[in-house]
Amino acid sequence: MARGNWNDNGTILKNTITNGAQGVGFQIYNGTAATPLKRGDALMSRLTKMATINDQYTFPITARYVRITGEALQPGEVQSKVIFAVSYD
């Protein structure tokens, strides 16, 4: 995982809406893992080769809405973005 509006330790995606909610964000998980992914982590190292170009793959990603410790809570809308870089050969 790469770019996004991360907190200082890179574990929570912060709200990107101006004048939106404060003190909350999102954590990204690899499937049902108990530990969230951090900025710079690889979701997975390698996929098994797909049989044909028409095959589809669903990435096992989940997100959780979380409180950001040390920030005051403010109600409002929440939105965030993260970029997953996929390379293949």
Automatic annotation (TrEMBL):
Superkingdom of origin: Bacteria
InterPro entries on file: Adhesion_dom_fimbrial (IPR000259), Adhesion_dom_fimbrial_sf (IPR036937), Adhesion_dom_sf (IPR008966), Bact_Fimbrial_Adh_Pro (IPR050263)
Gene3D superfamilies from the UniProt entry: Fimbrial-type adhesion domain
GO biological process, one term: cell adhesion involved in single-species biofilm formation
Any one of the GO CC terms: pilus
Ranges of residues in domain Fimbrial-type adhesion: 8-89
PANTHER family (alphabetical): FIMBRIAL SUBUNIT ELFA-RELATED, FIMBRIAL-LIKE PROTEIN
Name by which UniProt lists this protein: P pilus assembly protein, pilin FimA
